[in-house]
Amino acid sequence: MNTQRPILISVIQYQAELAAGTVTPLQLADRLDGLGVDGIELRRELWPDYASELAAVRDHLQSAGKLVTYATFSTLFNTTDDAHKLLLHDLNTARALGSPLLRVFPGAAPADTKDAAWATAREAVAYAEDIGIEIALENFGRLPGGLLREMTHILDHITSPALKVNVDVGNYATHGEDVLEAIKTLGDRVIYAHLKDKAGDKSDDTTALGGGTSPMGDIIAALNALPQRVLYCFEFVGGGEPAERIAKSIAYLKTF
Predict the structure, then answer these.
(1) Which candidate, 6, 43, 86, 207, has a CA 20 to 30 Å from the CA of 168?
(2) Is residue 1 assigned to a domain?
(3) Continuous segment of H or E residues that includes residue 16
(4) For the segment 120-155, what is each residue's pLDDT rounded down to a tens digit?
(5) Residue numbers of the domain that contains 132
């Protein structure tokens, strides 16, 4: 394992198989050695039985010396109490799973930082810090919450050490923004990166690294140049050949 740049797969590679019931999160956890990766990103939305299966998956990963991260569609900025409570629940789930972080999306951050939504966002970040979890804020593939200026607006006004960044390299391209500029701007707040190559114009048109149209060489070089530890997570679709796409992507990363 490269301790500074460990490589994780995401359940996104096996989304179709999970939906069909032909594979379970525990079975995926058991395949990590064979895939040659250091860990796995799990997601609440793709894990209907997470509450009952979490302990078994966590224990298996820990005994195998594998990393785990947790990602959800929860947002940092919420307009309802239920959505805010779900975010806090997701933070607790990440901690119970042994994940160092929770990937979330921004949601609609009001321009006025005195808006009540900012208070609940700060509360969530403070709670994450209290329980030892970092929030990895990701630029969303749609709007609001997908633009670099939205990310920097939030980071400029919530300066907690618990609020960090997941750079989704495909989502910036979807919005017509320069991912290299985003990496440079976000700098030392980056702790996580969703790696995928663009295979089309839509945010979910993705493939293995080096197999699409993204400037992957420049992107990997920019991420590798960051001095801090950054977890690399493959977030391309499986396309009926998840293991093959994972192997191609690992081989691509080894060229740097």
Answers:
(1) 86
(2) no
(3) helix 15-20
(4) 999 999 999 999 999 999 999 899 999 999 999 999
(5) 7-253
